[in-house]
Amino acid sequence: MLSREDNEYLTQTDPGTPMGTFMRRFWTPFMLSKEIAEPDCTPVRVRVLGESLLAFRDSDGRVGLVDEYCPHRRVSLFFGRNEECGLRCVYHGWKFDVDGNCVDLPSEPADSAFKDKISLKAYPVREKAGIVWAFMGPVELMGGLPEQEWMEVPDDHIYQSRWYQESNYAQAVEGEIDSAHVSFLHSKLDNDAPNKAALTGAFFAEDTAPKWKVTESDFGMTLGARRRVDGGRYYWRMNQWLYPFYTMIAPTPGESRTVRMWVPADDGHCNIICITYRNDHAVSEQELHNWSTGAVAHAALIPGTLTPAANSSNNYNIDRDFQRRESFTGIAGVRAQDAAMTESAGAIVDRSLEHLGTSDTAIIKMRRLLTDGARDLEKGVEPLAARDGSLYRIRSDSVIIDEDVDFDEKPDILEGMRVNAHAAE
Ligand code: FES
Ligand SMILES: [Fe+2]
């Protein structure tokens, strides 16, 4: 559990909050390049770390992330005209470029110097692997982008999507790194078993109380969960959590890999960016179909929105008959099952009321790494991972071994999680 004060410290990311200041030391992914694909496209509203912003691509293809509100009389620039390398407010015609400079101020006399005193808040932006990132901290402290494996694969090896969740970022991440729930939440009933409540799901069902081994690193932590399978062998899944909100979930051997970014939109909402990719070959038609329809890894959205079709307003389309006969939850799809749990705790779960067990080891550690990082920064200690993108050259993995040793005692397992070791693959 956390005290109410510590819970607020962890979950609040608006400008000026300690966690918000900490997160602003890192590059923040906030949308997909394909959402603003064309020059002079329609501007898109985005909420990032409690700020209302507007993203647009100018006539030269450059992306701007600016304050949504015009510095003149604070109307929304969403209604603006994106034309000739700038966004023009439709109220009185003031125009701004992607850097926030006021490039035209037609409502004042032509010889007025007023224009030079006006600017719109704008953040440095970069695009990489179909994702748009902003640096929202002090520019003199701007480091490199996190060098993750998926950022280097060819375009036809990767698929990106984004949606919003109605919860704080921290509990959404906690749901993702909580490997213990897989044996329950995502399981099916075994109708052949004498006890109908017995769980299937291969290795997850064989051992529902995995042994945990969590190791800290400069990038964050590796969460190893060991299950006993196959009559005495050991199935290790190593997920990664990377500062400040990335997760890499261990793939089934030979399958695609998933990376999610749980970016605070505001304290009550999370902007989820999801990447699935292969580093061995281009994604297949079937994979693309499964991902783009939200059947696997990604979310099925209400058309024209970033809201999942199965959401709290329809109880995630729970089917009680399906729950009795076949599914542990009666909710279709892993994404909806996860969201049903993490959103049902309320926008910001009251962690002073919880009772954590041994299976919550990773969650406890993640909270501590984040809050320690923010507290260190309050004392003037800058976060290392924000400056050194090469720390992110890591991947998740899963293996089956015969020996009763922890994953971090096996050099070949550690090597398999290092991206450099497989750069030539
Ligand atoms: S409010 Fe935008 S130009 Fe006046
Ligand atoms: Fe899950």
What's the quick description here?
The chain is an alpha+beta fold and 425 residues long. 19% of the residues lie in helices and 25% in strands.
Describe it for me?
With 425 residues, the chain is of the alpha+beta class. It has two domains: 34-139, 3-layer Sandwich (Rieske Iron-sulfur Protein), CATH 2.102.10; 149-422, Naphthalene 1,2-dioxygenase Alpha Subunit, Chain A, domain 1 (Alpha-Beta Complex). The protein is built from ten helices and 19 strands. Strand 2 (44-48) and strand 3 form a beta hairpin. The two termini are 43 Å apart. Bound molecules: FE2/S2 (inorganic) cluster and fe (ii) ion.
Tell me the major beta sheet.
8 strands, antiparallel
Which ligands, by name, code or SMILES, are bound? FE2/S2 (inorganic) cluster, fe (ii) ion
What is the count of β-strands? Answer: 19
Rg, rounded, reads 23 Å
What is the level-2 CATH architecture name of the largest domain? Alpha-Beta Complex
Question: Which SSEs are present, and which pair or pack?
Answer:
Blueprint: H1 4-11, H2 18-23, E1 27-32, E2 44-48, E3 51-57, E4 63-67, E5 81-82, E6 87-88, E7 95-96, E8 102-104, E9 122-123, E10 125-128, E11 131-135, E12 158-165, H3 169-177, H4 203-206, E13 211-217, E14 220-229, E15 233-242, E16 246-249, E17 257-266, E18 269-277, H5 285-292, H6 320-325, H7 334-344, H8 361-378, H9 384-387, E19 397-401, H10 411-416
Helix pairs in contact: 3-7
This protein binds FE2/S2 (inorganic) cluster and fe (ii) ion.
